[in-house]
């Protein structure tokens, strides 16, 4: 079977190595075989290499496999014959996940039947060259010919790229003539600073506004942010789950938000923010501000055992110190009633159950399955009500959701029992929701468009999408990015708490730490921290930087903003013995140098006339 598949795949143009790799991917292999068989039936003969390449691209990129036969029909009949048309077709299908496809609209969007003549290509290239003629003559063959290609492509969307390139090469040669020795010399490269290295100009946050001198915020918050979906187009994101109610919910979402970008910074109030949080603050607030959106400061206050009022105050203080003003300050506890009602609804839908396994039993990635997973809905409803009324001891019962997460963990806990008063709700609740249950639903309530979180939460993405869809509520998109760490320091709140509790450091603002309160105490300006975060950028990979790169950002800001003074701490008394007067006061003005302020020195000289010379 494997040899047969390899032979079939090489026949459509795949290399033997690529064919063997494809066979190892069972899902891809089945889709590609199905596409080839359908194409052969339509063609009545073997599949040529051009068609085979398009079929392979469809099998690897098409997420809605129900539309496979539809696309294969267009490819086999040569109505879709280029990668450009296929890209348009895949985008169209992705944007119409549930709607029946309108063939006329589809063909119009994909350029089916459109013919581009050589004369049209020649005219488009001539127009492009005329637009850039002055720059082209000045730079000659060092000019970026891609601009000419792009200009011509904009006028002739469905033209063959190879034909356009040949026409560009021919017309440029006719205009400039053959290449000279100067044209063959390599253009000197512009050296770009490495990630984390300070640039000469940068952006800072002042009074809640991002001010940039050399680059826009989105250029500095580069990387993954450029791939983000537009508001209301959540379904275009890789891995997003579309249900029969998705489009209706997204329509209501757009009516509520008006197409506005919405993000949130959701810290747990169980410690002081550190330098890693500064990156999250800059990314969440910065991305929203750069796109005319809003950002919430939402406290994830679902664990009353570790939360203190001083942390709530300090978190808000640090966010504002960095120059950002939240659109609103919210709490997960604001939604405790709604979250409880949704938990009851989840049980009614058969998607959650009350479990009596101990915490130790369900730890790790391969815990034994719960013997209570299939208990009747009515029984789970009564037990969950009993949990709420305090009929069980801590750890005796939990509410668990029926799903398998991306890391293989089964049935995460949604509610657990804690007999600890909450700082905002007091003794009203003795059951509290977990992060896996609370976070996505609070995002949904606040109509967040982009739920930005660090890479370790990627395993929670499946539960994020699953829970919103299980309750038929608006589902935002979770985007993950790499954490920011520093060498030679501790940036884990759990570890810093241990240092504080054991007396290894005085408190959270001990200058040896890299908490934001400690950095402020050391005299680090907030603009320097924002610059540092922007220069590190936003990528999927975890970033570990050297502390001296942060210090370089500090020096750069202080060089421009810090006031300078000069003073004589230990003045010397000078005695002159041959001056005729008894005393004289001499005032000497020292001119300013650079940023140094003008200083006045006052020297009193005591005169004695008994010394000759």
From TrEMBL:
Residue ranges of domain Glutamyl/glutaminyl-tRNA synthetase class Ib catalytic in the record: 260-559
Assigned EC number: 6.1.1.18
Amino acid composition bias (Basic and acidic residues), ranges on this chain: 184-202
Domain Glutaminyl-tRNA synthetase class Ib non-specific RNA-binding as annotated: residue spans: 4-161, 164-251
Pfam family, one: tRNA_synt_1c_R2
GO MF annotation terms: ATP binding; glutamine-tRNA ligase activity
Region described as Disordered: 184-203
GO cellular component, one term: cytosol
Catalyzed reaction equations: tRNA(Gln) + L-glutamine + ATP = L-glutaminyl-tRNA(Gln) + AMP + diphosphate
Keyword terms: Aminoacyl-tRNA synthetase, ATP-binding, Ligase, Nucleotide-binding, Protein biosynthesis
UniProt similarity note: Belongs to the class-I aminoacyl-tRNA synthetase family.
Identification of the protein by name: glutamine--tRNA ligase
Native species: Hymenochirus boettgeri
């Amino acid at each position: 079977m494997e040899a047969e598949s390899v032979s079939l795949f090489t026949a459509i143009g795949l290399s033997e190595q690529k064919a063997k790799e494809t066979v190892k991917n069972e899902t891809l292999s089945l889709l590609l075989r199905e596409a080839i068989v359908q194409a052969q039936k339509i063609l009545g003969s073997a599949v040529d290499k051009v068609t085979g390449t398009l079929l392979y691209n469809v099998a690897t990129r098409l997420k809605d496999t129900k539309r496979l036969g539809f696309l294969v029909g267009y490819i086999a009949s040569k109505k879709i014959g280029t990668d450009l048309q296929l890209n348009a077709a895949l985008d169209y299908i992705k944007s119409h996940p549930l709607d029946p496809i309108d063939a006329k609209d589809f063909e119009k969007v994909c350029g089916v039947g459109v013919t581009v003549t050589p004369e049209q290509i020649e005219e488009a290239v001539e127009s492009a060259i005329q637009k850039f003629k002055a720059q082209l003559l000045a730079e000659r063959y060092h000019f970026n010919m891609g601009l000419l290609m792009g200009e011509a492509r904009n006028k002739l969307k469905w033209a063959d790229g190879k034909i356009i390139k040949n026409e560009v090469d021919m017309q440029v040669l006719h205009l400039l003539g053959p290449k000279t020795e100067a044209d063959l010399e390599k253009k000197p490269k512009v050296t770009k600073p490495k990630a984390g290295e300070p640039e000469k100009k940068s952006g800072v946050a002042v009074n809640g506004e991002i001010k940039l001198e050399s680059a826009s915020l989105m250029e500095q918050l580069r990387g993954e942010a450029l791939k983000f979906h537009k508001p209301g187009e959540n379904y275009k994101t890789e891995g997003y789950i579309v249900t029969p109610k998705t489009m209706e919910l997204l329509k209501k979402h757009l009516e509520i938000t008006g197409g506005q970008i919405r993000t949130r910074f959701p810290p747990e109030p169980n410690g002081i923010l550190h330098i890693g949080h500064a990156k999250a603050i800059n990314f969440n607030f910065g991305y929203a501000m750069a796109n005319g959106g809003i950002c919430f400061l939402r406290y994830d206050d679902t664990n009353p055992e570790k939360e203190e009022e001083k942390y709530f105050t300090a978190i808000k203080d640090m966010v504002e110190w960095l120059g950002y003003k939240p659109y609103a300050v919210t709490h997960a506890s604001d939604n405790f009633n709604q979250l409880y009602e949704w938990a009851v609804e989840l049980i009614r839908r058969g998607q959650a159950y009350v479990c009596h396994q101990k915490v130790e039993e369900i730890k790790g990635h391969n815990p034994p399955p719960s013997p209570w997973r299939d208990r009747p809905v009515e029984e789970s409803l009564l037990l969950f009500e009993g949990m709420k009324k305090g009929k069980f001891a801590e750890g005796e019962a939990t509410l668990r959701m029926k799903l398998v997460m991306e890391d293989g963990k089964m049935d995460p806990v949604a509610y657990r029992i804690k007999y600890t008063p909450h700082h905002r709700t007091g003794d009203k609740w003795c059951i509290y929701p977990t992060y896996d249950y609370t976070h996505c639903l609070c995002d949904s309530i606040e109509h967040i468009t982009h739920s930005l979180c660090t890479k370790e939460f990627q395993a929670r993405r499946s539960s994020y999408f699953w829970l919103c869809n299980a309750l038929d509520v608006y589902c935002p998109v979770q985007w993950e990015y790499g954490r920011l760490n520093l060498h030679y320091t501790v940036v884990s709140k759990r570890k810093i708490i241990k240092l504080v509790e054991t007396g290894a450091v005085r408190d959270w603002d001990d200058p040896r730490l890299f908490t934001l309160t400690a950095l402020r105490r050391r005299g680090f300006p907030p603009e320097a921290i924002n610059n540092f975060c922007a220069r590190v950028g936003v990528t999927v990979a975890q970033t570990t930087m050297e502390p001296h790169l942060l210090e370089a950002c500090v020096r750069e800001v202080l060089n421009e903003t810090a006031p300078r003074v000069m003073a004589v701490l230990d003045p010397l008394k000078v005695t002159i013995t041959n001056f005729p007067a008894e005393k004289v006061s001499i005032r000497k003005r020292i001119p300013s140098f650079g940023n140094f302020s003008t200083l006045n020195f006052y020297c009193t000289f005591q005169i004695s006339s008994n010394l000759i010379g």
